[in-house]
Specification:
Layout lengths: L1 H6 L1 E5 L1 E5 L11 E8 L1 E5 L6 E5 L1 E5 L9 E4 L19 E6 H17 L32 H10 L17 H13 L30 E3 L7 E3 L19 E2 L24 E2 L1 E2 L3 H8 L17 H7 L3 H6 L58
Antiparallel strand pairs: 1-6, 2-3, 3-8, 4-5, 7-8, 9-10, 9-12, 11-13
Length: about 375
C-alpha cells in the first residue's frame, strides 16, 4: 500500500467552471458551476508550424488528489446564473456545483501536501489556455478565484524575482519589509486589521509575518567595524543593509543573552569576537524579554523586576513616528520608561543654528564698557 501511495498517478481533464452571481445584499454563498466544457489549449502539430486546439490533460501524483464532493443543481431553477452559459451540457437541465470556500480550502490543502511531499517546482505544469477567462478560474469581475498566495510567492522566488504580494493581506506592495512591519506593530498593539491570514502569535518573522517556521530563524554576526552580517532562509528574505541608529524592525543582538565584555585596562573599547548568534527582531524584543529575562521589568507589561539597561530599552523602544506610520491609535501606544526622551536628536546630528536676523528681545543685553582715565589738571604759572 505504501508503494501505491507514493507511485500512483491520476490523469484527468480540467473542467471549465463559472461563478454564480448572488445579489450584493444577499447572504447567499458563492458557487462555481460546471458548464459542461473542458479547458483547452493550442497544441503544435509535430513537423509543422500549425497548431490545433486540444483538451488539456494533466497527470499528478495520487497524494495530490482531493475529493470535493460537488452537489447536483438544476440550472433552470436558478436566478443567479445565465442559462445560456451552459449550452455544452447535454439537455441543459442540471449540472454540478461546488462552494467557492471549498475550492479555496482544497487549494491550500493541496499546496500543503505538495510542500510536505517536496514536489519539485519545475514539475508543476504551466498552462496557457485558448480562452484566458477559462483558466485560472476567475470571479465575475475577472480577479483570480482560486489561488494560493504561498505557492505564487514561492514560484516568484524560484525565478529569482522579489515577492511583491503580502502573504497576510494579499496586497501588492513595493516595500515588503516596511509593509510587514506595520502588520506586526498593529498585532502587538492589539490594533484590529482585516487580514486573510493573521500575524504569527510568537516572535513573528520580519519578512513573512509567520511564526514557528525553522527557515525563519535568524542569526546575526556583529563585526568590529562595518554593518553586521545576517543569516536566514525565509523565502521572503532579501538582502538589506542595517544602518547605525536605525529605528525600524531590524535584527539585533540581545545584550542580555550575549553580554559584551568590558574593555581591557588601559583601553577605551572592548574587543568583539565575530561569531553568529541567535538574533531577535526589534519589534519582538518586548516578548523576548518577557519570556527569557524574567528578572527585568518591562514598561506596560511587567512592573516587577529590575529596570532594563538603558542600552537594551533604547534598542526596543518604539518612537512616536513609527507608531503614527502604522496608524496605531494613541491609546494603544507603547508605554515608556522613566527618563525617555522621544525623538531626541542622535549624538551625531547637527544642532540648530541661530538665524542671522533675530529679534532684539531674544539677544542678551550687553553692558557698554567705559574706560576710566585719570583727571587731567591744567596748572598756570603766575610770574
Amino acid at each position: 500500500m505504501k508503494a501505491l501511495h507514493t507511485t500512483a498517478k491520476v490523469t484527468g481533464q480540467l473542467l471549465t467552471i463559472i461563478p454564480s452571481h448572488p445579489l450584493p445584499d444577499s447572504q447567499d454563498p458563492l458557487f462555481f458551476l460546471w458548464n459542461g466544457g473542458y479547458v483547452k489549449a493550442q497544441s503544435v502539430i509535430p513537423g509543422t508550424s500549425e497548431s490545433t486546439e486540444c483538451v488539456v490533460i494533466v497527470s499528478v501524483p495520487g497524494f495530490l488528489v482531493k475529493p470535493i464532493n460537488p452537489e447536483p443543481t438544476f440550472i433552470r431553477l436558478r436566478d443567479d446564473v445565465n442559462s445560456d452559459d451552459f449550452l455544452e451540457i447535454k439537455g441543459g437541465q442540471s449540472t454540478w456545483q461546488v462552494l467557492h470556500a471549498t475550492l479555496l480550502a482544497a487549494c491550500e490543502l493541496l499546496w500543503m501536501k505538495a510542500v510536505e511531499g517536496k514536489v519539485p517546482l519545475k514539475s508543476i505544469a504551466c498552462i496557457t489556455p485558448s480562452d484566458a477567462k477559462a483558466f485560472p478560474y476567475q470571479l465575475s469581475d475577472g480577479t483570480p478565484a482560486v489561488i494560493s498566495v504561498k505557492a505564487c510567492n514561492l514560484l516568484t522566488v524560484s525565478k529569482g524575482e522579489r515577492i511583491t504580494m503580502c502573504l497576510l493581506c494579499e496586497a501588492k506592495v513595493t516595500n515588503m519589509r516596511s509593509h510587514i512591519g506595520q502588520h506586526i506593530l498593529c498585532a502587538l498593539s492589539n490594533t484590529p486589521e482585516s487580514l486573510k491570514e493573521q500575524v504569527g502569535k510568537v516572535l513573528p518573522c520580519r519578512f513573512c509575518g509567520q511564526s514557528g517556521l525553522p527557515e525563519c530563524a535568524i542569526r546575526i554576526k556583529v563585526l568590529a567595524s562595518g554593518p553586521p552580517s545576517v543569516e536566514m532562509k525565509c523565502i521572503y528574505h532579501f538582502v538589506f543593509k542595517i544602518k547605525a541608529h536605525t529605528r525600524r524592525n531590524v535584527p539585533i543582538r540581545c545584550t542580555l543573552c550575549h553580554p559584551v565584555l568590558p574593555p581591557e585596562p588601559g583601553k577605551s573599547t572592548c574587543k568583539i569576537i565575530p561569531a553568529f548568534v541567535d538574533a531577535v527582531w526589534r519589534y519582538n524584543m518586548v516578548e523576548h524579554v518577557l519570556n527569557q529575562h524574567a528578572e527585568y521589568s518591562v514598561p506596560g507589561h511587567r512592573e516587577a523586576g529590575a529596570p532594563l539597561p538603558a542600552e537594551v530599552w533604547g534598542s526596543m523602544r518604539l518612537t512616536d513616528l513609527e507608531q503614527i506610520a502604522a496608524r496605531i491609535p494613541k491609546e494603544h501606544w507603547q508605554v515608556g520608561q522613566e527618563g525617555d526622551k522621544e525623538n531626541a536628536p542622535a549624538s551625531g546630528s547637527c544642532t540648530r543654528k541661530r538665524p542671522a536676523l533675530e529679534s532684539a528681545a531674544s539677544l542678551p543685553l550687553k553692558r557698554p564698557r567705559t574706560a576710566v582715565q585719570p583727571l587731567q589738571i591744567s596748572r598756570t604759572s603766575i610770574a
